[in-house]
Design brief:
Helices cover 41% and strands 16% of the residues. It has a 4-stranded parallel beta sheet, sandwiched between helices. A 3-stranded antiparallel beta sheet has the order 4-3-5, with no helix packed on it. The protein is an alpha/beta fold. β1, α1 and β2 form a beta-alpha-beta unit. It is built from 7 helices and 7 strands.
């Protein structure tokens, strides 16, 4: 298979920012809103330092997953151009974003039955997730087909270990990621 016949797509939870455009990887963005504000922001539009400063000052951010329609807006032009898609998504354990990508893929498969959309749940976030996207880009550039690349990335997921620390558990509690207990 020609390596140019598919595109790698991801979402903003990969935290790869400007690298994605450099690599030619389209991305859909999760959104966030601070309590008491009407302004909804894409999470790739706010600098991490500014975000965490707001949190330290008592701000409570609510995040929203990407919906299937946003995925369709990114996927459809790629499919219409005759390319297949390898979508690597934010962990299903932390967000419904990957599932929204899967819903969009299922819907578009009816319109583009000759095209292939492979959805991979990274089961990770941030740097670990970004590393999978980076390795998929590298593998594609080495000539791997969509199927070979999907198999490669899927094989890495159970072996990928990444760690994170937090200054204060209050942020995880506020965001509903851990129980008050």
């Amino acid at each position: 298979m020609n390596t140019k016949s598919y595109r790698i797509v991801t979402d903003s939870a990969s935290d790869m920012g400007a690298y994605l455009s450099e690599w030619g990887v389209p991305s859909v963005s999760l959104t966030l809103k601070f309590d008491g504000e009407d302004n909804i922001q894409r999470n790739d539009e706010i600098e991490p330092v500014a975000f965490y400063n707001r949190m330290r000052e008592g701000g409570v951010a609510k995040t929203s997953a990407v919906n299937p329609e946003e995925f369709i807006g990114v996927f459809e032009p790629i499919l219409a151009a005759g390319e297949d898609i390898l979508y690597i998504g934010f962990s299903s354990g932390l967000s419904t974003t990957c599932n929204s990508g899967r819903i969009a893929a299922d819907k578009l498969s009816e319109t583009y039955p000759e095209r292939k959309i492979t959805v991979i749940d990274s089961l990770s976030a941030s740097a670990g997730f970004g590393m999978l996207v980076y390795l998929a880009v590298r593998k594609k550039n080495e000539g791997a087909s969509l199927e070979e690349n999907a198999e490669y990335i899927t094989s890495l997921i159970p072996r990928l270990c990444h760690w994170f620390t937090v200054d204060d558990l209050v942020y995880l509690k506020r965001g509903g990621r851990i129980s008050p207990t």
